[in-house]
């Protein structure tokens, strides 16, 4: 049955009571001398009935308002299951419809949020990386399955003191946490060594600082990389040794034949070639030894202008950078060797000699050294691998020049990067902290 508008119902009740009141007032006026007394009696008699009927008329609306207020409280508590069925039209009908639409939207959002939380929890629990969230009181808020297995013998970690948990961990792990920051450490002896990477991040959650601790076991990955590296080293060394030893053996045999035949005039040529190949092999092995035994840098103050002039005496380049008595603290010998390799690479890139340039400038608290050329540059595949040891695109390259430069830069606390120049050529950029 369709509801009548409340305004119409209220108007009908008011008209009915006005008509009844007027009739009763006229009727009582015939018996009472004072019309105002008759009116007062009629009002006193009809007022309670009017209030009763008005309350009955507005009762559904009041009930609806109470229900809406209760649903808002339920929404605040996270219960979005309430909806209303109101057959009336007008403003109240639109209010109820809007409320129901709001409830539907909140339920959908809640369901989506629950599904996302479930997915995220599933991913966190099944990742091989041990993850722990530590609150400001240094208690564990959350630990995934990998963390339980690695540090808790399979038991739940939530609520435990992080310090107590760490006290039961192996000593190398405790030392890694004491050092702070990210880093790698190994646990166990040589035959049963396990290698881990520690990562720690601080962030604010609900206005409080929390720490996210990540522990990843890298033993299997590093073992595979180590095997691949050794295979590559063996291939490179075998190739270089064969390239030198095969002609040496052949020329030694030829020299013996020349001696037997008395053809002494051809011996110097054979011996010179043997010497050249032996020298090349000696240099090749020396380069590998230098890379493998690179010592820690011995930082000493150097004057850039003198350093650049010393470098120019060994390799040609155009210079664009700081002048005067600018000072830096570096290992001069290591940096010189690194830049010689980079400048020689620039000359071998196909660039014109006058376009090989070295730039030096100050950037914040560091020095930036750029070696520039106008050669053919590098494609993406070469750029991504050029800094790796033993990677080379040259026919007779050892793949150690750029790797050695990277090793020296990182040993100084700096970094090195390669990028193609606009208009052709390559820029090798080395940044060294001004310690």
TrEMBL record:
- Subcellular localization, as worded in the UniProt entry: Membrane
> ATP-binding among the record's keywords?
yes
User: What keywords are assigned to this protein?
Assistant: ATP-binding, Kinase, Membrane, Nucleotide-binding, Phosphoprotein, Transferase, Transmembrane, Transmembrane helix, Two-component regulatory system
Provide the reaction this enzyme catalyses: ATP + protein L-histidine = ADP + protein N-phospho-L-histidine
* GO CC annotation terms, alphabetical: membrane
One of its Pfam families is PAS_8
Which superkingdom? Bacteria
SMART domains, per the entry: HATPase_c, PAS
Coarse class of the primary localization is membrane
Q: How does it sit in the membrane?
A: Multi-pass membrane protein
GO biological process assignments: osmosensory signaling via phosphorelay pathway
Segments spanning the bilayer are 36-54
Molecular functions per Gene Ontology: ATP binding; phosphorelay response regulator activity; phosphorelay sensor kinase activity; protein kinase activator activity
What is the E.C. number? 2.7.13.3
**Residue limits of the Histidine kinase domain?**
236-435
Q: Which PANTHER family match?
A: SENSOR HISTIDINE KINASE GLRK, TWO-COMPONENT HISTIDINE KINASE
Name the chain's protein.
histidine kinase
- Species in which this protein is naturally found: Lysobacter antibioticus
